[in-house]
Amino acid sequence: MTNKGLLASDLTISRAEHVLLEGAELELAPSTITYLYGENGSGKTSLMRCLSGLLQADSGKIYWNGQPITSLDSEYFQDLIFLAHALSMKAELTILENLSFYARLRGIKDPKSLIDDATSQLGIAQLQNRRFAELSAGQQHKVALCRLVIEPAKIWILDEPFVNLDKATRHWLALLIQEFAKQGGTVLFTSHHEIEELAIDQRIGIEH
Amino acid sequence: MFRALLKKELMVARRNWIGIVIPLFFFVMVVSLFPFGVSPEAPTLQKIAPGIIWVAALLATLLSLEQFYRSDYQDGSLEQTLLIAGPTQVASAKILAHWLLTGLPLVIVSPLLGILMQINHGFIDSNHTWVLMLSLLLGTPTLCLIGAVGMSLALAANRNGMLVAVLVLPLYVPILIFGTSTVTASLENFSYNGQLAILAALLMIALVMSPFAAGRALKISVS
To answer: For residue B184, what are the CA distances in angstroms to A49, B45, B54?
Structure first.
């Protein structure tokens, strides 16, 4: 066991009296990409929510850099980006307003240039002033991915980030994840298909 | 961080203004029905005005609570803001925004309803108007603070609107009693300082406890 990265020890997670995971051990070291796979309902999302601090495990502990995440509170959460199924954007706000909001929550005072850069990379720069609700599903997904470029983090937990993406964007995201890991970041992601473009360091399967 | 949360709430509300207008319209409509339904005569209206205005304000606040977390919960932004900003800050920003958008407008329109209920004849020349406004100014934030805790708890119970009413209404009773009593005392030319002091004390207690309680309940709800 190293002190760096995310470590889950003896983790038991259940949902509606159905035990999804029992005594699970998990280690996500810095500079590694971990692929989490399993059938629908196997507990991938529950595990990710648990590692993100959103779901309370029945038992077990989760450590970030050697300290329990419950005692770290905001420090761990400032290091973390958790992209869930729900894209977490306000339909009433524009792309620029949505991304500026998240950037300001992370303490970035003037995020415009970062947003310009992120949206340009994803080919949605010209849509910055369009309301989120007016975008297609693919474009909405791209907006959510912009957060990975804009917000500083040390760990990414990504729940099916490759869904709804065209080939070019899948390639872009794979490169981005690879680059993040190369710079010391920790990545955990789920997908129903293995991503060919991505050099995966660790594979974890959940069975019923 | 708090400023960013508050700004987002206000921006969303600006684009979704109907949610602000409905509770205000409800407040005005409920009060304006009484002169038609009971009696347009000043002595009758003056007698029932404090209770009517306060009950209408309470119900309008309860109505507005429905939108407190719902869209944030559905689009996932509630989870994200909880992760980044922490539950107490999220709840505090929500409460402040909610009061600014739905509680403060009630205070602002209350002089008009005072005229309608004949507790004052001019717009702002009557002392009773100021007392009514002051009582609402102290009471409506408390209603929002208590309501926030109720909504946070109800979110865990599949956002059950009836449950919010059951949880929150009994806690609204002291505010209703002292709010009504303040205006009644003013209309009868008695001292109302004691009632205002109790309203202020209730606000202070709610200010200290509610953001924390609502935050904890929110954290439980999203898990």
So the answer is: 53, 12, 11
